[in-house]
């Protein structure tokens, strides 16, 4: 039996176990998905212990995505984003100095969510709201796909640092990435083709981070918030005729990407999606 797992603290709320278990059941795979909740100071020991126990792969979630970089050999995308959410032990030789590979499938979650809804990203104008971990994955995903990216954040300086990283890590990124405060949404969103809310606004309160009057029918809107699924931003975007994509799609496709990386098989997306949405 293969064992995969999730590393985070806390992990009791996670929807990854039922999503991955549904994939194993659908494909008749002899595998299980378990959770680990180490103390923050024990992250390295937890990763090494998982490998010693024969765990085949780990997802990594809050608060460990950045710190996990110290214990893996990150691929190019994870290194550029500065965060790891998937660890693969299959390429190592189990020696103490041989690190597992680290990956970031959150970016693929963004890219594949838009592709699922037939939204193209190349040569489009994209706006990302926020500058935290999810925003970093979104900004790199959009820039790598060929979009011109504007990052708007409550603290403009943090948005500028993210854009500088995108500029250094993406061809033509320096010319195609811009940053500003949330006040720039009023001028940027009306001309945008793609919008990603990568903040938690809308999760605890019925609020939107984007002025409703800026939304329009030529826009595709992805809200990373998945509780609730139908956020105020998505409702207001839909009323304006925009294409709307709820946060469960991003959560689904980051898991799909991890499954395919670990197993080398096409993921049963419908089964994983059904299991995920049954718990939302």
UniProtKB/TrEMBL annotation:
NADP(+) binds at residues 76, 130-134, 153-158, 224, 247. InterPro entries: Aminoacid_DH-like_N_sf, NAD(P)-bd_dom_sf, SDH_C, Shikimate_DH, Shikimate_DH-bd_N, Shikimate_DH_fam, Shikm_DH/Glu-tRNA_Rdtase. Homodimer. Residues 120-200 form the Quinate/shikimate 5-dehydrogenase/glutamyl-tRNA reductase domain. It comes from Halorussus limi. This is Shikimate dehydrogenase (NADP(+)). Belongs to the shikimate dehydrogenase family. Involved in the biosynthesis of the chorismate, which leads to the biosynthesis of aromatic amino acids. Catalyzes the reversible NADPH linked reduction of 3-dehydroshikimate (DHSA) to yield shikimate (SA). It catalyses: shikimate + NADP(+) = 3-dehydroshikimate + NADPH + H(+). The gene is aroE. HAMAP family: Shikimate_DH_AroE. The keyword NADP applies.
């Amino acid at each position: 039996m293969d064992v995969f797992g999730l590393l985070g603290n806390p992990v009791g709320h996670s929807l990854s176990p039922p999503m991955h278990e549904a994939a194993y059941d659908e494909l008749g795979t002899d595998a299980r998905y378990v959770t680990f909740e180490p103390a923050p100071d024990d992250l390295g020991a937890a990763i090494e212990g998982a490998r010693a126990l024969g765990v085949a792969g780990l997802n990594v979630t809050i608060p460990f995505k950045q710190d996990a970089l110290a214990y893996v050999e990150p691929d190019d995308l994870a290194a550029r984003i500065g965060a790891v959410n998937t660890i693969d032990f299959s390429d190592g030789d189990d020696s103490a100095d041989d690190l597992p590979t680290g990956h970031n499938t959150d970016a693929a979650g963004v890219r594949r969510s838009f592709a699922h809804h037939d939204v193209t990203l190349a040569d489009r104008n994209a706006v990302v709201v926020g500058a935290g971990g999810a925003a970093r994955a979104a900004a790199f995903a959009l820039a790598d796909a060929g979009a011109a990216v504007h990052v708007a954040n409550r603290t403009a300086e943090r948005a500028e640092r993210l854009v500088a990283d995108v500029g250094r890590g993406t061809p033509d990124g320096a010319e195609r990435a811009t940053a500003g405060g949330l006040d720039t949404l009023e001028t940027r969103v009306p001309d945008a083709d793609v919008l990603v809310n990568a903040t938690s606004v809308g999760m605890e309160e019925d609020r939107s981070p984007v002025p409703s009057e800026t939304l329009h029918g030529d826009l595709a809107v992805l809200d990373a918030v998945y509780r609730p699924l139908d956020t105020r931003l998505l409702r207001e975007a839909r009323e304006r005729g925009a294409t709307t994509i709820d946060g469960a799609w991003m959560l689904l496709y980051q898991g799909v990407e991890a499954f395919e990386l670990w197993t080398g098989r096409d993921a049963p997306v419908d089964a994983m999606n059904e299991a995920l949405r049954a718990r939302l």
